[in-house]
Design brief:
InterPro entries: Histidinol_P_phosphatase_HisJ, PHP_dom, Pol/histidinol_Pase-like. Belongs to the PHP hydrolase family. HisK subfamily. The chain is α/β, with parallel strands linked by helices. It contains eight helices and nine strands. The strands form two sheets. Strands 1-2-3-4-7-8-9 form a seven-stranded parallel sheet. Strands 5-6 form a two-stranded antiparallel sheet. The model has no long low-confidence stretch (mean pLDDT 97).
Length: 264
């Protein structure tokens, strides 16, 4: 089944105002049989968004309307495409209990979700890993080196895979090499293959999936998918399911680079 399992919505504060229907029309036109709307879930109540505009995620007060609107298009297009109500949930170290509570509340209404790492902590402060090249450079300064940033990222991803977030924990791990987003400007000389293998083994042991995220192809300082082709090969050796995700934040990006990833 041709599926795009990672699509954002007009509820994204840093995305576009494109209507839900426009995403669906784009998916149907490309022959997708299934799509998942996976908006950035509200951050834990006690967590302070470290981004300048505080626009990393939707507000919890929007959740009811979010679910309602997706259910509406789900019914409207039921003959054309299977539409899933989903979320991209942030794994944030030390905020597991609040995340578990959120999932216990809204998990029953979800069909499909991702668990992703965007925030890294150092000395009681959090930083948004993928915000900008300038912020990534600042993070390098705080952590001491590019290698230390990578080390912290893969440690956080491993923790996300192993975390006990309850029965509604997402079954798919988002963009596990997102740390590569600015690699053309800030290359890392260490492969971290052992850390990646550890993550893949934990994913396999828990029968989870990986988000095969095309967005990195369209980031000029990355130019590869998340995960990279080397990691994809390792995942395939372990028969770990890879689910294509456009990570579209506007309708025109639905299905981006699908052919490059799956129809070679």
């Amino acid at each position: 089944m041709k599926k795009d399992g990672h699509i954002h919505t007009p509820f994204c504060p840093h995305g576009s105002s494109d209507e839900l229907r426009s995403y669906v029309y784009k998916a149907v036109a490309q022959g997708f049989e299934e799509i998942s709307f996976t908006e950035h879930a509200p951050l834990p109540p006690s967590f302070k968004d470290p981004t300048p505009l505080k626009d990393s995620a939707m507000k919890v007060s929007e959740m009811e309307l979010y679910i309602e609107q997706i259910e509406k298009v789900k019914k409207e297009f039921q003959k054309e495409v299977k539409i899933n109500v989903g979320l991209e949930v942030d794994y944030i170290n030390e905020y597991e209990e609040e995340t578990r509570h959120f999932l216990n509340t809204y998990g029953p209404y979800l069909d499909d979700s991702l668990l992703s790492v965007h925030f890294l902590n150092k000395e009681d402060s959090f930083y948004c890993l993928d915000y900008s090249a300038e912020e990534f450079e600042h993070i390098i300064t705080k952590f001491g080196s590019v290698e230390e940033v990578y080390k912290a990222y893969f440690k956080a991803v491993a923790s996300s895979v192993k975390a006990d977030l309850g029965s509604y924990k997402p079954k798919r791990i988002g963009h596990i090499t997102l740390v590569h987003k600015f690699q053309k400007k800030f290359p890392c000389e260490v492969s971290f293959q052992n850390e990646v293998l550890h993550i893949l083994n934990e994913v396999k042991n828990r029968n989870l999936e990986l988000d095969y995220n095309a967005a990195g192809f369209h980031k000029p300082l990355c130019q590869e998918a998340y995960p990279s082709k080397e990691v994809v090969a390792l995942a395939q050796q372990k028969n770990i399911p890879l689910v294509y995700g456009s990570d579209a934040h506007c309708a025109k990006d639905v299905g981006q680079s699908y052919t490059k990833l799956f129809e070679r």
